[in-house]
Fold:
Amino acid sequence: MWSQDGGKPMMPTRAFPLLTFTAVVSNLGAQRATLQIGGAVSQPLALSEAEFASMRHQAISVETHDEKGVFGGVALIDLLIRAGVPSGADLEGKDLTKYVIVTGADGYRVTFALAELDGGLSDRVVLVADSKDGKPLPANATPYQVVVPGEKRSVRWVRQVIAIDVFDPDRR
Structure:
């Protein structure tokens, strides 16, 4: 194909890449509806929004320099327990070296030590929220947002959470 001004040849256009792109976008939309929990867990999960909604929810009030409100959702440790991660009295020894990486749809990732999430070791509840102030999360945060109370900055508040993975440094 030639350019309109008679100059250098132009790259031919193809419909295939557009179709591929459409499929990728479609798959991303489908992924947003599920929350993947995997890695070093005994029972990997793919929770639908309905399954997430059926779990025990709690509300926490938080205020940082740029976030304020009452968030509702499921404690991150409860999601991990459902996937078979040790907790409470069972969390000891080499399990204390495990860590959790939470990933957002845009690729943003943060790390938590498994021990800092466990109610037997910390009073802080790290929440995977699905509501704020009694309403659904804003579009730039849905379907889930990690909320970390007590931190001075909200840099570990991952928005549009799609995956939670547990890592064991002893298993490589």
